[in-house]
Design goal:
Chain B: Its main location: membrane. The complex is a heterodimer of chains A (287) and B (259). Chain A is of the alpha/beta class and 287 residues long. Helix content of chain A is 41%, strand content 22%. Chain A has 2 domains: 2-98 and 175-255 and 267-280, Rossmann fold; 111-174, no CATH class. The relative contact order of chain A is 0.17. Helix content of chain B is 83%, strand content 0%. Chain B has 11 helices and no strands. Chain B is globular. The chains are: A alpha/beta (287), B mainly alpha (259). Chain A binds chain B through residues 72, 75-77, 94-95, 97, 99-101, 103, 105, 108-109, 111-114, 122-123, 125-126, 154, 156-157, 174, and chain B through 147, 149-150, 152-153, 155-160, 163, 167-168, 171-172, 174, 248-249, 251-252, 255-256.
């Protein structure tokens, strides 16, 4: 089908595209929850930043900073109050083509009535990928996350970390241009988390996919990201867009003991502390 | 092997005790309405001949099957629609509550007025209407109670409404749907009998009433036993289907409970 050739053509081309090519563009995004009979809640006051093609950007913020609201808005699962999210030059009005989301609650984002393989193949079926190709893509994606053996098991038969790897495999097999991850490792233990972080780095590097990774963990954000977008408390604005100038080759031991890692971590940490204390860049300008 | 013996022991233990108790308690009975179990069992083969099985039991079961089938299809279709649409739900809720509160046997004389006492139609309508509510209401709840993250996942992968229905919504609601269907089935068996009590001349319920009216008391008792056996058989069949379709649900729950 032309649809699939188009798609594979795009994903093959993506890494060669110029670095200035914008994959995801947030233009003055605002979100106010206006439920009838309840007080209005201004969740996001104004966010305006862009993510270049092939970049891995982490978003951190104090708890209640509207991280999930932001991610759901980008994913097209939530209507914006004002502003727009533009993916590949097209404004997002609903869940866009070419975007995959990995949710925090892995146990609830996998379909328990399907096997691991069926979970990975379902979105491909929707795309109209022919059966043989679908099978091959699923196999490949499961191999990427080292879960080939678990293909015929059901998600609930696997450990938490493995389940989240299934969700990642499903997203990878979909071949998205932008991969959104919403605190994907918040619910797994520390060792598994370190493994999964390295998995995300390596997948990002050899698939050339653009990743937006939302987390509340400062270390994780600095370790994974090329950039860390720090959010203020609610109503959310941008605190700072921190560029992470660590070497591209990262590993849990050397990177985390790198003095520069410590500095960046400290910097992001103090930003978060300031955000928690109610410090807001938009109010500074007024003062 | 021992495992099978043990489970057979658990399944058959209580029935054997009850039957033995019945056997001895009724052994010397001279009360015509309460004949000894031995007399009842003697009457069994002469009562439930091939002719009766084909003429009474099978038509009753066929009506039950058709009525239950209609209820399942209608319940799934309406329940899914109502579960997915808040406005449809607001619109239909008072009506649903009203119909749910009406005991299904009350409908029998009313339906008989319109669809006739003797034909199949009135009986099937009675069974279908009685079976509809548990399935319908449970489907609504099952569809509404779907895990929001699953819905989000289905949306973000842009699953078409049809795929969402078949691969996400219905399987997700299936534990509740089965709960409803099980309730419906037992209501269906009751209505199968009740629908035959008025003016029908063939069918399991009609046969039992005729035995009673002609003072064929041991035969009447055999009818009650046949009904009970049919109930057990249907429940077993239902369980088999349920175990197959909900294997994932049972497995998941066992693991969540930390087994």
């Amino acid at each position: 089908m032309t649809f699939t050739t188009l798609l594979s053509g795009r994903s093959a081309k993506a890494p060669e595209a110029p670095a200035t090519d914008v994959a995801l563009d947030l233009r003055n995004v605002q979100k106010t929850y206006d439920t009838p009979g309840r007080p209005e809640v201004e969740a996001i006051r104004n966010l305006d930043f862009r993510i270049n093609r092939g970049e891995l950007v982490c978003v951190v913020g104090p708890s209640g900073a509207g991280k999930t609201t932001l991610l759901r808005s980008i994913a097209g699962l939530l209507d914006l109050t004002a502003g727009e999210v533009v993916l590949d030059g097209t404004p997002v009005t609903g869940p866009p083509d070419g975007m995959a989301v990995v949710f925090q609650e892995y146990g609830r984002s996998l379909f328990p009535w399907m096997t691991v393989r069926q979970n990975v193949e379902l979105p491909l079926k929707e795309k109209g990928v022919p059966k043989a190709e679908r099978k091959a893509k699923a196999e490949r994606a499961l191999a990427e996350v080292s879960l080939t053996e678990a293909a015929d098991q059901h998600p609930w038969q696997l450990s938490g970390g493995m389940q989240q790897r299934v969700a990642i495999a499903r997203a990878v097999a979909y071949e998205p241009t932008v991969l959104l991850m919403d605190e994907p490792f918040a619910a797994v233990d520390a060792q598994t988390r370190a493994e999964l972080e390295d998995l995300v780095r390596s997948l990002w590097k050899h698939l050339g996919v653009t990743v937006l990774f939302v987390t509340h963990d400062i270390d994780e954000a600095v370790y994974l990201g090329e950039r860390v977008v720090v959010l203020s408390n609610r109503p959310t604005v941008l605190m700072e867009d921190v560029s992470v100038d660590l070497p591209a080759e990262r590993d849990q031991l050397t990177t985390r003991s790198d003095p520069r890692f410590g500095e960046l971590r400290g910097h992001v940490y103090s930003l978060i502390q300031k955000a928690k204390a109610g410090h807001r860049p938009d109010e500074d300008q007024e003062a | 092997m021992t495992r099978y013996l043990k489970s057979a022991g658990y399944t058959l233990g209580l029935p054997v005790i009850l039957l033995t108790g019945w056997w001895f308690a009724s052994a010397g009975s001279t009360n015509p309405f309460w004949p000894p179990l031995s007399t009842i069992l003697e009457a069994f083969p002469t009562t439930w001949t091939m002719d009766r099985i084909v003429g009474d039991i099978l038509p009753s079961l066929a009506r039950l099957g058709i009525g239950f089938g209609i209820a399942v299809v209608l319940g799934l279709v309406l329940g899914t629609a109502i579960g997915l649409s808040p406005s449809l739900r607001a619109l239909s809720e008072p009506v649903l509550e009203f119909f749910r509160a009406v005991p299904p046997p009350v409908l029998v004389p009313i339906i008989a007025l319109f669809a006739g006492y003797t034909g199949w139609l009135g009986k099937i309508v009675t069974i279908a209407l009685g079976c509809l509510w548990p399935i319908l209401l449970n489907t609504v709840e099952g569809v509404r109670g779907l895990e929001p993250t699953l819905t989000d996942t289905a949306k973000s992968y842009r699953l078409s409404p049809w795929r969402r229905l078949v691969f996400v919504i219905l399987p997700g609601a299936s534990p509740r749907i089965f709960t409803g269907a099980r309730q419906s089935l037992s209501i269906g068996v009751i209505l199968m009998v009740i629908s035959e009590l008025f003016g029908a001349n063939r069918g399991l319920g009609a046969a039992i009433v005729q035995f009673q009216r002609s003072f064929a008391i041991p035969q009447m008792w055999t009818g009650v036993i046949v009904l009970g056996l049919i109930g057990v058989l249907l429940a077993t069949l239902f369980k088999l289907v349920e175990n197959r379709m909900l294997a994932w649900y049972v497995g998941q729950r066992q693991i969540e409970r930390g087994a």
